C-alpha cells in the first residue's frame, strides 16, 4: 500500500466531503483513507462532524494523523 502524504489525504477528504465521484470511487477513496491513517473515526469526521463551524479537510486530516492508539497491556 503506497503511503499518502498529507496533501493527498486532504484531496481525498475534500472529494468525499463534497460528494464528488461515483459511489464506487467514494468507496475506494474511503478505503484508501482508512488504510492510510490509524484513526478509526476518520469517516465520522467527514460525514458526521457536529463541529460549529465544521472541520475543514485540513483539520480532519491533521486530527486523524495526530491520533495515537491506546497501548493495552502491561510491561512484558
TrEMBL record:
Name of the protein in its database record: E9imm peptide
Originating species: Nocardia mangyaensis
InterPro entries membership: Colicin_E_sf
Top-rank taxon: Bacteria
SUPFAM superfamilies in UniProt: Colicin E immunity proteins (SSF47345)
